[in-house]
Amino acid sequence: DFYVVLLSPCELDTTMKMILQVPTWAHRVIYIQGSALKDADLIRARVTEAEACFILAARNYADRSAADEHTILRSWAIRDFAPNVPQYVQIYRPENKIHVVFAEHVVCEDEFKYAMLANNCLCPGTSTLVTLLLHTSRGQEGQSSDESWHRLYGKCSGNEIYHIKLSDSRFFGEYEGKSFTYASFHSHR
């Protein structure tokens, strides 16, 4: 079993407090108000015992370069305090990746955004697919629209993806060993 420790200088908002009271999360997620720049707070968060440390870019900055600077400082502080803990760092600007080369993985939001746009040119709909996979929807968006495609898109945006072996599927098990084109054509007739 793993525990997730959230360390943030901000006080929890009401929504997050409610989420952390759900029994699924209540015993696995611990919130600590503090700063990654203070050793005392890193000790309370037991960073030296962590399997990994995820450092997310702050969303409340108007200036993305300033947000990256703050993220880099936090990453450096954690590296100095717990050098053996793998870091996964999110930044905005690609030119700032050089400052966190020691991190296991660096996700640059701007690079991701532009790569997504480029992939969308090569394969139209890629950005829509990724957006629908990353955002939760109840499938009710666009239902009051006059456009039929709005209603269909909104309805389908509420679909969910489940992990299951093809051979175990009651609906798609018969397509095992067939090409994707064959399976998609015959399953949606």
UniProtKB/TrEMBL annotation:
Organism listed in the record: Leptotrombidium deliense
Transmembrane recorded as keyword: yes
UniProt-recorded name of the protein: Potassium channel subfamily T member 2-like protein
Molecular functions (GO terms): intracellular sodium-activated potassium channel activity; outward rectifier potassium channel activity
Pfam families: BK_channel_a (PF03493), Slo-like_RCK (PF22614)
Membrane-protein topology: Multi-pass membrane protein
PANTHER family (alphabetical): CALCIUM-ACTIVATED POTASSIUM CHANNEL ALPHA CHAIN, SLOWPOKE 2, ISOFORM D
InterPro entries: K_chnl_BK_asu, K_chnl_Slo-like, NAD(P)-bd_dom_sf, RCK_N
Domain (RCK N-terminal): residue spans on this chain: 1-107
UniProt KW keywords: Ion channel, Ion transport, Membrane, Potassium, Potassium channel, Potassium transport, Transmembrane, Transmembrane helix, Transport
Keyword Membrane: yes
GO terms under cellular component: plasma membrane
Cellular location(s): Membrane
